[in-house]
Specification:
Blueprint: H1 10-24, H2 39-63, H3 67-85, H4 93-100, H5 109-112, H6 116-125, H7 130-142, H8 144-153, H9 161-184, H10 188-210
Helix pairs in contact: 1-8, 1-10, 2-3, 2-6, 2-7, 3-9, 6-10, 7-9, 7-10, 8-9
């Protein structure tokens, strides 16, 4: 049984699952980028989805006269904005990835939808609770450095500008994600939802090696 959040470091956990994915799907170990595609195209959408839902919750709280909770979540939104502005939404990481993996441009859409990370992204995109979604995404950010190192080690992606940028930026992103978790910890209900999102992330992530995709 895989260890989940609270029992395993995010970097260790995500690196382990990527390693299992590589072992189970050797055809993806060709540095073509199929082993991580379409995450670079869809992750910005996941972040934008979270920002929209989070701002909706902030606005609803203020309109309901719940200023304290509104201010708390507004602070989390500001941290999230810092994280995304220095990454997927402030820069065009998709173009960097495609420059390193040019063969993906011609990949048929139906084949893209069968790739393991496609299923992961689509399931996360379906989450409508902003705090749960925030927990999912911040758990992912906390372990992205380990993920990137494992993707390179297992030849699921090619070394290039995309990986160079992420190996530097993910350190700061993990720090900002930790700050969001600390802020939410002061409010029990929000903290429970956030932690539920972190656990959900790990459950979905396990599917990369044990259920998503068929190529």
């Amino acid at each position: 049984m895989h260890r989940v959040v609270g029992e395993s470091d995010a970097n260790e956990f995500m690196a382990m699952i990527v390693g299992e994915l590589a072992a189970r799907r050797p055809a993806l170990r060709d540095q073509s980028g199929r082993g991580f595609w379409p995450t670079p195209a869809l992750f910005p959408l996941l972040l934008a989805h979270c920002l929209r839902l989070l701002q909706q919750r902030v606005s609803d709280l203020y309109l309901a006269g719940k200023q304290d909770h509104g201010e708390l979540l507004a602070t989390c939104r500001c941290n999230l904005l810092k994280l995304v502005s220095e990454g997927d939404l402030g820069e065009d990481h998709t173009s960097l990835f495609l420059a390193d993996h040019p063969g993906l441009v011609a990949l048929p859409r139906d084949e893209t939808q069968r790739l393991p990370f496609s299923g992961f992204c689509q399931q996360v995109l379906s989450i409508e609770d902003p705090i749960i979604l925030l927990g999912v995404l911040m758990r992912n950010e906390a372990g992205s450095l380990g993920e990137m190192e494992s993707l390179l080690k297992e030849d699921l992606i090619a070394p290039g500008r995309f990986s160079e940028v992420h190996l530097v930026e993910e350190v700061e992103h993990a720090f900002l994600a930790e700050g969001i978790a600390e802020r939410l910890a002061v409010e029990p209900e929000l903290s429970r939802c956030f932690e539920a999102g972190q656990r959900l992330h790990d459950e979905i992530y396990v599917g990369l090696a044990h259920g998503w995709g068929s190529v």
